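Task 17 of the worksheet. Students: predict the tertiary structure of the chain below and write it out as structure tokens. Keep your answer in the requested format; marks are given for formatting as well as content.
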Amino acid sequence: MILTLPKYVLLIGLTIIGCGEEKDIELLLQDPREFNAPADRCDSTLCTSLVELLNRAHSTIDFAVYGARNQTEILEALLKARDRGVTVRGYMDKDVYNKNYYSSSEMWMHQIGSVRDDLAREQECTREYTGRPPPCSRPHGFKGPLQCLAYDLGEDQILVAGHASRDSFPAINDIMHNKFFVVDGERVWTGSANLSDSGTGGYNANAVVVMRSKQIAAVYTAEFEQLWNRQGKCSKLRDGVEEFDFGLEKVSTWFSPQDASLRYGVGGLIAKAKKRINVAVFFLTAKYLTADLIDAHRRGVDVRVIIDATAAKNGYSKHEVLREAGIPVRIENWGSKMHMKAASIDGHRLVLGSMNWTSAGESSNDENTLLVESSRLARQFDVYYDDVWQSIPETWQKKNARPDPESPDSGSSCSDGVDNDFDDLADANDPGCLPEPPLLPALPPHRIITPREYEEMKHEYPMMRPKSCAPGYPDWYVCLSVDLRSGCKTIPYRNFSVEGNDPLRLDGDGDGVACEGQL
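Model answer:
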């Protein structure tokens, strides 16, 4: 039986006065239980907020999006803006075969006209996977690039594993995965929602931020210009991480691949966590970030994780590693997807944006991430998080338990018209929706061994060590490794405060600010 639940969309507005300019931040959180199927509609606040911004535009609209599918009202708002004299520019993803994942993308590009894509970059920069021969044994049946991993779980337990995908992928493709709009040089709409019937259409769980700030808009415009003018370039100019101080609230902007957003951004906030971390992400495969979460749990931080059921089929997913460490991980069983890339930390910090917690999200894709310091928004995110956490049965928190994303285990997935598990089959045609569905394919195995046993195997399974933060740098978003050797040139922060000792000797002129003018 399919239940239509009451609408639960959270919209929180912050009005911040500073430097004589009013700046607004709104957080929009879409409940994945609101709709039973995707549709070409604009009923969610993710969509209505964007259409409202586009309808109010009077000079410029710049957008960078992964693609588009069945969002007629958004397209019409863009065309109306163009027809009334607004300069509209767009940028979308293309793969090496000149294809976009979303079915309406080509039509959008044709109708809007001034939309470019990253095809030239894909054709120039797609590369074969070449890595060192892995030191550990490959699990049977897994053909993709092999990760050899070890994690210290505490209590004299070391987890060792070889993670790989079942299918091989000889080439590495970088995707333009942003979802942001800049309107009139003063408003930014961004987050995890694609312009699709399942994204802005409201079917999936997504988080969007709407910001009114000329300074933040200027940073996003600069990123858009890099995309717009890149042609076949394989890299982007590293402008440095910006921080915007609005009094009680602060925002730090990060872009992939140039800013090392997981290593220096998300990982730093996790390393500084003291009480609570709530994670809601589509994919969680980043091996070092997994070590950061385990380390937080070991030092007494209450860590919870929700990931998507389709992502949990991935051979690189780290959800079973986290479970072995004692971290509660629930895998959603909705018809829709957990598509957020979000977390709250200690009730006053948020991670938001388009970047999945993967090595590709940090190191090769075009992405944007926001770190936000705001007790008000973090508290509201936690209210939402508690509600969706409770909506997932405890069954899907147990070790080795995961629902088939296209099956009766997953809400309306057998009647929503969507290929939920990306096997080119949907609803009654998918084996998972049969009366006697097949078992899910197994994930790569892992072992728990003692530290003594690990000493004999450490050359096969390198230890994934968590991030540590050097003392003396008090800025909330700054975390530098105590053994940093390379200095300012590799640090993405433009400048940051030095308090007391400067253990890494980064404040050359002794004025209390480090790495000034490094870029």
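Marker's comment: Confidence is low (pLDDT under 50) at residues 1-23. Residues 1-126+173-237 form a domain with the Endonuclease; Chain A fold (CATH 3.30.870.10).
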